Amino acid sequence: MSEIEPLLQSRDEEAASEQATRSSVAKTKTARVASVDVFRGLCVFLMMLVDYAGSIFPVIAHVPWNGVHLADFVMPFFLFVAGVSVAIAYKKVSDRVEATGKVLLRALELFFLGVFLQGGYFHGASSLTYGVDVAKIRSLGILQRIAIGYVVAALCEIWLPCERWRGGSFLRNFTWQWCTILLLSVIYLGLLYGLYVPDWEVRVVPSDSSLVTANNGYVHRECNISSHGEVPQTSPSWCHAPFDPEGILSSLTASVACIIGLQYGHFLVQLQHHKERLWNWCMISVSLMGLGLLLAFLGIPLNKSLYTISYLMVTSASAGITFCILYILVDVYSWRRLTCVLEWIGKHALSIFILVTSNIIVIVVQGFYIKAPENNIIHWIISRFVHK
């Protein structure tokens, strides 16, 4: 890429390279940051891996309640890269109203696409039927959560005042965005631990349980979103009321994850040198990881269904570390052959997501069989590994 300089250049070489970069950027459109596409492609690949192999290898499937497995990093990684993309897309906004309209339209597209794909309309790869009772449709899900995080991060970037790296510290330049992170976190903690739930009783229950699940489900049901739903299979045995793991309350911290990704994107846009970018990214990642593990040690568990603060910090830090590694491989040393497939997937992430989530790929593959419909590769994999 034209805007990338070697990681180990001297300061004089960096200055000369920066002058050349500025002149070339003035003449040509800014090139795509390949590591962002690769990271997005990695998210889609991990999603397919845990969706189709999670039942075969439980060690990579979602943790039933507290803790994290590989599958529990997929959603935070999607939110992280969405935030990074916002910083790149809206680094220069000439018309805030027009930009806001585009953001809202894009968010609505993602939201309603998510309702269509994950609201119950499709009945799975084993059934060719479709359709859903609109009174029982699932209104929140993965794409919907990404849409919420995206619109929050984008509106912060467009409307909140900030300095464009004029020699000030990072926190001072984007003070209002960090205040938004703090505000959303405080609201989340206040509702999670301080909200009174009328039909909840204090009883002696297992050590991994608490009132937070009751509050999470209560907020969701009061908004008439999941009162018709079922109790999630991964919920603890003492939870008897329906709640959505992609619900309203946990969407607050999910939005924070997107804003954290936005901060990483600021370093990518505002800084010109690899070492400066990587240093700041590593500092944030290490700080978040340390704070997240400390909170987990103090009693706030790593929990995806509730999207706890500790889970938010640990997964955001993991996303930041992963992004640093990909940035070094792809944009610094240009090892593109190793990641070309992931880069292609990242450039077509939404299309592939639709094909995977709707099970179109699986349905097409299992349509090819030998002599009898049940003699297809999908049925063989399920009978050989899942139901062995």
Description:
The chain has 388 residues and is an all-alpha fold. The protein has one domain. Helix content is 61%, strand content 2%. It contains 15 helices and 2 strands. The protein has a two-stranded antiparallel sheet with strand order 1-2. A hairpin with a 1-residue loop joins strand 1 (369-370) and strand 2. Residues 1-5, 20-30 and 222-228 have low confidence and may be disordered.
Short description:
It comes from Penstemon smallii. With 388 residues, the protein is mainly α.
Element-by-element helix/strand order: HHHHHHHHHHHHHHEEH
- Principal-axis shape: globular
Question: Number of helical runs?
Answer: 15
Report the average pLDDT across residues: 78
Strand content: under 5%
> What is the count of structural domains?
1
Q: Which strand order spans the largest sheet, edge to edge or round the barrel?
A: 1-2
Distance between the termini: 49 Å
How many strands? 2
Radius of gyration: 22 Å
Biggest sheet layout: 2 strands, antiparallel
Low-confidence stretches: 1-5, 20-30, 222-228
Share of helix, binned: 55-70%
Based on helices, strands and strand pairing, what is the structural class?
mainly alpha
